[in-house]
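Objective 1b: paired records.
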Amino acid sequence: QVQLVESGGGLVQPGGSLRLSCTASGFTLETYSIAWFRQAPGKEREGVSCISRRDGRTYYSDSVKGRFTISRDNAQNTVYLQMNNLKPEDTSIYYCAAQVFRQCSLWPEGNYWGQGTQVTVSS
């Protein structure tokens, strides 16, 4: 069964950190580009970060650049999103998606999607 599962979300104070995980089962994650998206209530889904399968190049939205880091652990079949200096506006449901593209995209499209993990930044 092909599946993506996100984990690591939770409640954190402003300035805090979280590490999200996106673990694949039923397929090999390194054969796909992987992107992280987020969606807050009443807002459109937005691209946060992605890592390309072609060359491992990473991309970030302007809103998270310098604070978030995406990485891949092929042995664990997992992609991580390290989130530092979190802000209340980072509060969202975070989703990962596997993209067949050789070059990843922050446009909200993917061949496989996870169910999402809630991140809440509040004091």
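Objective 1b, second protein:
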Amino acid sequence: VQLQASGGGLGQTGGSLRLSCAASGRTFSNYVMGWFRQAPGKEREFVATISRRGDSTRYTDSVKGRFTISRDNAKNTVYLQMNSLKPEDTAVYYCAADTRWIPSTKNNEYAYWGQGTLVTVSS
């Protein structure tokens, strides 16, 4: 499966951005999807994940209540709605996919990765 992330850009503290990740090449509903991010000088970290049917989600603590992951299997797209943005949300955001059944928070358990989209939050 090929993944193409988009929607990054410059946001303001307290503002919102929505990331999208379009998948192609395979049956999208066969994949668990995840969002990860990597800030400058830091390791890539888990942000959110969603099950194949979209009925189960998990978030890292720092984004709970602010970010929402969702998917539209008819459009082969997963989204990350980011509200109440903070400067510490600044990072390159990556979408990832895997055929596993159970959503994972570990980046080494995703086989497919998009190219990343930069989110910069100004204070």
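DSSP finds no helices and eleven strands in the chain. The longest strand covers residues 17-24.
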